[in-house]
């Protein structure tokens, strides 16, 4: 299958006169999601009421949709389930992994990891109160920091700020040589580039669906568990829908077999309907085509921006093989500059202290968009249009 990106673009609602380079933060609306969600509400919730759990199959949505996401990340059927937020899924994966590697006390991560992964880890360490320690090393030094006392390696594959890409397969193999379990956060990988969890022999993986997978704000997360660990991993958040027989209403918890045990409580069916509409578009897409196009667009963007805006310093790896699907630049007044861009019809985002971040999502971004974006950036930078008091006032979300 050769992906027809003009078709995929036509399936998203993209406001006129706007270039959206922030699908790495929140994907745009798949047009079909509007009818899918409204028919779910009207025909299923409205007409079927509680019988929808059986008659519309709501109860099995988390694993059915998990399998569809699994196809995008090299996970076999029955190894991915959807629900909760990514922060919760990080917690679940880490708590289970620590129990499996029970005689070790170090959790290793890197200084480029997303704060919630580190915060959830610190919270878990405090609750367990068993002498666990979170050790951080520089992203480039992860392989050298793997040692026999590390229980779990917890990494985000693509750095949320710089787009730097870890080598999942090599690091997982090196971790395994030392008896370390791996948890990969795929927030900036799923739908951004080819991921093969099976080939990498990853142990756990987690990710969100509201970025490249376009499920909408607050869309649920997913978790993957390697089949070899599935019946060994104790679900620490032992909610009733992860029970072997939720509707037996037993007083004692018995985990469901396999990945189902990573379910917790009632799934968000309305949001899952939106996600399904997006996954219908993903069915038309070959992830290798996405990678080729994403690199093409990102390289074009870097060339144009560096050429027109000497004040912006590339914060992402120049070598596309070491980059995810975003490009970041350092600029001292990056926050104000991003606001100026947004005012002129280019949406990216800002990450403190000085990163201007732009995501490349070939499903709906093409070379024309990139050229328009680069010319807006040049206009703002060359004319110092960011130097306006209004643009320095911080909003709650950057
Ligand atoms: C790498 C990474 N991990 C975790 C999160 C947080 O996920 P959530 O807010 O869904 O819990 C994000 C959010 O952007 C992220 O980028």
What does this structure look like?
- α2 runs antiparallel to α10 (269-282), α5 (86-100) packs across α6 (115-128) and α11 (287-308) packs parallel to α13 (367-382).
- The protein contains 13 helices and 15 strands.
- With 398 residues, the chain is an alpha/beta fold.
- It has helices at residues 5-10, 31-48, 52-55, 61-72, 86-100, 115-128, 142-145, 168-177, 197-200, 269-282, 287-308, 334-343, 367-382, and strands at residues 12-13, 19-20, 29-30, 80-82, 106-110, 133-137, 150-156, 181-185, 204-208, 221-225, 313-314, 326-330, 346-347, 349-351, 355-359.
- The strands form four sheets. A seven-stranded mixed β-sheet has the order 4-10-9-8-7-5-6, sandwiched between helices. A four-stranded antiparallel β-sheet has the order 11-12-15-14.
- The structure holds pyridoxal-5'-phosphate.
- Pyridoxal-5'-phosphate is lined by residues 85-87, 114, 116-117, 156, 160, 185, 187-188, 208, 221.
- Residues 85-87, 114, 116-117, 156, 160, 185, 187-188, 208, 221 line the site of pyridoxal-5'-phosphate (PLP).
């Amino acid at each position: 299958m050769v992906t027809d990106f003009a078709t995929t673009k036509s399936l998203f609602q993209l406001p006129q006169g706007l270039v959206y380079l922030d699908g790495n933060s929140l994907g745009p609306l798949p047009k079909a999601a509007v009818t899918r969600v409204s028919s779910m509400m009207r025909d299923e919730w409205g007409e079927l009421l509680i019988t929808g759990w059986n008659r519309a199959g709501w109860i099995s949505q988390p694993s059915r949709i998990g399998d569809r996401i699994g196809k995008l990340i090299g996970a076999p059927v029955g190894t991915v389930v959807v629900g909760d937020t990514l922060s919760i899924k990080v917690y679940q994966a880490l708590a289970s992994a620590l129990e499996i590697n029970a005689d070790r006390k170090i959790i290793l991560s890197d200084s480029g990891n997303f704060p919630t992964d580190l915060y959830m880890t610190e919270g878990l360490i405090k609750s367990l109160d068993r002498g666990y320690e979170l050790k951080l090393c520089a992203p480039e030094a992860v392989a050298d920091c793997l040692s026999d006392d590390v229980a779990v390696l917890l990494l985000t594959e693509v750095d949320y700020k710089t787009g730097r890409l870890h080598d999942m397969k090599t690091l997982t193999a090196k971790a395994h040589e030392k008896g370390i379990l791996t948890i990969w956060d795929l927030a900036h990988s799923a739908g951004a580039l080819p991921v093969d969890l099976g080939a990498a022999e990853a142990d756990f993986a987690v990710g969100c669906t509201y970025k490249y997978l376009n499920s909408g704000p607050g869309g649920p997360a997913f978790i993957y568990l390697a089949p070899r660990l599935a019946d060994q991993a104790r679900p620490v958040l032992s909610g009733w829908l992860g029970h072997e027989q939720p509707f037996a209403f037993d007083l004692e918890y018995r985990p469901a077999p396999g990945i189902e045990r990573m379910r917790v409580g009632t799934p968000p069916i309305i949001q899952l309907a939106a996600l399904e509409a997006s996954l219908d578009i993903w069915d038309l897409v070959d992830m290798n085509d996405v990678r080729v196009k994403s690199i093409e667009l990102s390289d074009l963007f870097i060339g144009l921006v560096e050429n027109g805006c000497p004040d912006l310093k590339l914060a992402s790896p120049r070598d596309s093989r070491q980059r995810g699907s975003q490009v970041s630049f350092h600029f001292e007044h990056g926050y104000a500059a991003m606001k100026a861009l947004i005012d002129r019809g280019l949406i990216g985002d800002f990450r403190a202290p000085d990163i201007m971040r732009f995501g490349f999502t070939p499903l709906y971004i093409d070379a024309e968009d990139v050229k328009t974006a680069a010319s807006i950036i040049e206009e703002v930078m060359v004319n110092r249009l960011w130097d306006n008091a209004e643009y320095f006032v911080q909003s709650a979300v950057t």
